[in-house]
Amino acid sequence: LNRIIKTGKDKLNKDELSNVVYEINCADCNVSYVGQTKRQLNTRIKEHNGCVQQKKHLCNCCKILEYDWFIHLDPIRN
Hints:
Blueprint: E1 20-26, E2 32-37, H1 41-53, E3 65-72
Antiparallel strand pairs: 1-2, 1-3
């Protein structure tokens, strides 16, 4: 019966995870940025993309950002 009825949660897409460390690379040069956020990754990526359009980001040449990897962090427990 356990094989038929699944009780686990659905997996989230990578961009829906929170508490992550991520790396962003500029597609035009070798500049990279490593960040950490407690919010959903897609929210933070939207903010980075907004900064690129306003020319307030990593370097002056950035037009396209590549999001290479991220690590899901376990919440810190007291």
